[in-house]
């Protein structure tokens, strides 16, 4: 399956969910979703705006932020707080704890789901009397290909 086909399937799944939830995937939201799906790794709001302007010349920052808020609320997009950027989620049908592996060299972001980590985290939070509503763990480091690249240059 090509990347384009994969992205089309992803959008189709997102639109189906929106229909089911009774929320609207407006053209602007759809376009931002599409841009995120075409981008590898995480991307900042202003870089997204630059891309959006190619399709929608009068797009303004609020256009992007409103679309991102919506996509985040629907679980289609995860926000990476440490770099203030956004990444598309490919398994948004259900709420899930997120662990992000963020490459500090190429910016690639991989999402992993370790149930063990989540359970430990929640049970320790409970021991503090804290109710976890949302949990994102961000790990900064080097991805596999950047590690290889580093070895070659040494
Ligand atoms: Zn996700
Ligand atoms: Zn990398």
Automatic annotation (TrEMBL):
GO terms for molecular function: DNA-binding transcription factor activity; transcription cis-regulatory region binding; zinc ion binding. It is found in: Cytoplasm. Its cofactor is Zn(2+). SUPFAM superfamilies: Winged helix' DNA-binding domain. It comes from Aliidiomarina minuta. Homodimer. One of its GO terms (cellular component) is cytosol. This is Ferric uptake regulation protein.
